[in-house]
Amino acid sequence: MKYIITESQYDHLFTDKNYRLVASMWDNGMDTSDIAEFTGLRESSIIYLLREKQIDINCSFADTLLQTLFITSLIDKNFHGENETLRLAWAFGGMISFDYEDPNYVLRGVSTPYWNGECITPVDSYYFEDKKTGEYEDENDKLEMSTDYTPSSYNSIQEFIDFLNNEYPKELVRTIRKIIKKRSFN
Asked: Fewer Cβ atoms within 10 A, N terminus or C terminus of the chain?
């Protein structure tokens, strides 16, 4: 007897089979790099397969997952408000850099959630420009600011992804606005 299946049915079988294998390996105490080594799958594929699985993620584990997640297409890196733009990028040294621009100001810096495994998101700027006056500062601020909200735990990788795509950019923009007020030349 032969069965004919569609491409999407085949893809579902492949994904389901891999999910069961990866979930089983995870449940047996293997981390994503070990699973990648044994299965030949990329770590980003493993993260994708495990994203809905019930996994307790604390701040230290979030710090570990951040780089793998951030280099995937699961994380949005460009945000546009009414009159502002925020671009995020994974930077050398394991940090997230940002470029913020609105009609009056440009601010560049770094802001990495769960820096050093702590439940905090520090925000440091290294370039500030007032577009109206043309004045700029090209030096690190000494403001020692952080976002107001960084969750201490998640129940799944998908919850963490949702935070990075929704809450983190909003919190970062709020903090950027505070930095702009403190750094403005007025």
From this structure: N
